[in-house]
Amino acid sequence: AAWAVSEKPGSSYNPLFIYGGVGLGKTHLLQATGNRISALFVNKNIVYTTTERFISKIVEAIRNQEIGLLKKGMEQIDVLIIDDVQFFAGKDKTQEEFFHIYNTLYQSQKQIILSSDRAPNAIPAITERLRSRFEGGMIADIGTPDIETRMAILKAKCEEIPINLSSEVIEYIATNIQRNIRELEGALNRLIMYRKINQTSPDLATAKKLLNNLIAAPKKTTNFKKIIQIVTSFYD
User: Which of 3, 44, 77, 206 could share a disulfide with 202, CB 3.0–4.6 Å?
Assistant: First the structure.
């Protein structure tokens, strides 16, 4: 989907909405798409921003009574890439302004690419009209990699570094760390540090010791006080 968008921005999938858990590569994919569009269409005005930065710009423009100026500037964009749109939740004024910016760009056949940690219908406290716009294009889910993919990622990282790890060690890491790529890299970095210090690659028993607190991390717990605090904070 990202490749198709980069080949024909504004006409293939608009908007392209990519969602998935933390550390699965959403930001990398967004930036790679923007870079490819930039390489193929040198005259296009491409803007990548995080939602937090975008919200800050909206707030500043409202405070300085320059919202019209901001909108006019946004109209000059050919490709708008916004990361982590779940942070629009609860920001009613920002959602309203973004809705108008979105419509202007969409009607002008400008490409919009968005990412989130969840699907549009699972983002809380977001207006229905904005949610329907998010759902109007291509929704792509980046799932958690399976064990074969996790092993392939580890082997590729080992070749890049390079470090020689046994298939047993690689399989042990891939089996026990399942959630995201950053955790895989964190585990691998521990083994790399061991090798640098000891001038030898760790065997399976050593790897288990080194990664014990990563793999056997205590589960997060909560209580009613924490729940009340989070809910009241969110709804002010």
Answer: 206
